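ok trying again, last paste got cut off:
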Amino acid sequence: MAADMSRVKVLIVDDNGYMLTILRTILHGFGIKQILESRDPADAFDMVRSDSVDIIITDYQMEILDGLDFVRLVRTADDSPNPLIPIIMLSAYSEKSRVEAARDAGVTEFCCKPITAKEMFAKIASVINDPRPFIRNKSYFGPDRRRQDPEDSTYKGPERRKGLKSVVPDGGEEAGDGIDLSPQGDAA
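nice, full thing came through this time. structure:
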């Protein structure tokens, strides 16, 4: 990714001040100048509603409102201004159950602590350069949880899913493979 990242606005949500400092330092190293920080997920949601944010980086485990609840709030709350925003979740716990819970809450990418600049760069590059389509059904709203191209699937049986429906920013649906994330800013 050789793009100028100085115009990308990132919100970091973590109740640990030391982690906020580490993330801010890493993001500054990438050329990201616009960084908002919050130790409280409820306050962070107010920031999302009042400021145009391009990417959210949030911790998994926080007091009162945890990272999963925060992600669900951003994705599904009626007053959420951008439920399509890329969300990168950080956690010191990498058990399969926690990764799946984050995925099922609507997280775009998951990053294990201790984080490295290389890993964080890869996650940010992924959400900017390879955005996944968003899926809406009765029990889930968020990025497509399947990581492989459904056309490349070797399974051709009767239970095979028929194509994707992508959610578009106006709240409608259209058939297709991707989604235009440009309404949330010029991150790419």
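cool. The chain has a mean pLDDT of 84. The helical segments are 17-29, 41-50, 67-76, 96-105, 117-129.
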